[in-house]
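Worked problem 6 (solution included).
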Amino acid sequence: MADSDESNFECVVIGGGICGVSCIETISILSPLCKTLLISGSPLVKVATGVRQLTKTLEEFDVEERAFDWVESRNANIRVVSGQVTTVDSEKHVVHLADGRIFSYKMLCVCSGGKPKVIAENNPFVLAIRDTETVQEFVRKLADAKRIAIIGNGGIATEMVWELEGVDAVWVIKDSSISAAFVDAGAAEFFLDSWKNRKDKHPATCVPSKRIKYTNNDAAKITSFGSALGPDWATGLLMKGKSDHSSDFPIQLELNCEVKRILTPKEYAAVFGTPTESWPVYVELTNGKHFGCDFIVSATGVTPNVDFLQKTLPAGAFAVDGGVTVDDCMESMVKDIFVAGDACTAGWPFSPHWFQMRLWTQARQMGAYAAKCMLAKLNQEPITMDFTFELFAHATKFFGFKVILLSLFNGQRLGSDYEVLLRMTKGVEFIKLILKDGAVQGAVLIGETDLEETFENLILNGTDVSAYGEDLLNPDIDIDDYFD
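Solution. The predicted structure is:
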């Protein structure tokens, strides 16, 4: 093949994460002869494996890292290269890499993901968790640690604290409850109680609590974006420190506060006096508390990783959150440049039950849909939006529990005019339904409830459930019999 042929492609995808790989795999499936290039910033790419379809819109999958040749061997039309993209020339339809290589495209999809927000750049005692490499560094540092600080309240921090062993940790949270990006204070309390009593070997003997129904008068403010390293990324990792005096619940929660400053031992002594115990680094919080630790984990979320597009796209192409605004075909305002996953900000009118949240599930969905949109444009064919954008659905695991989030699970966009129906079995399950105008608008399902398909159907169909009242969550009634 001539050199010019080796650098010319119909589709070029930037990003070797789950979004980019989902994009190129979908291209390969739908158009096996479409010459496609994947540019990865690392020597390995992340591949979704073991995909399990739970409902129409909900799926679970594992994430594995694979070498380039594994991807190429399964997709004859795909070439994978490692490199750092520096600029994109939208007029000439070419991508420039830092090593001087240039690749041309007809359609370009940017799946460059997000970059971690770091509370203190270039501080050797602050570690930002984002990818496999930083997780490995965390495990290595943890082996020699007695106390750490974890800053953040998203998916990474939530999954991390559950897996910690042999180390004391101070979990610093700006919200009033844990895991606020995903669940409200009630579910957070369920997690905490189960966590503190996780040695209980007989949770099934618990009795369901009285079902509760209340009207929301103060809609919870939740973040629109979550951050996740990947499904079950912490499972199986040995996250063990060297402390020999950790309590049964070695986590000190500091709620409603943030880091005020990070101090060296010398700086700490000058401000607070000589400490009773010496530590490599010290943290002062906005609530006035201060403490020492071996190192600090920064898990405060991500921002779209699109700096290399600043000279390519006009200022109006970027949303307030830093992502590239895309239309309902995942295309930016610049012709033939598509953006998906964490790098994009959805700019189309959402369906009543969907919203964007920067999660691996949506990254995979957006990557696949962007592939369909690029091929449709290449072939000058019409396309309709994927059904996955009809309803927000996310499956994960927190504190050892299966967690399903459906639609407007925390009352997003509903203001204060909605009702909440709850059922909780201590240490076993937590079920929360959002109802408005007699219909289910969202659900949080924690534990092995097996209700995700039922409530997904109720939400999508707009079924009037007002006649059932609190019996909708009556543990003695099999609601599947009513609605299947």
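Discussion: Residues 376 and 382 are 6 Å apart (CA to CA).
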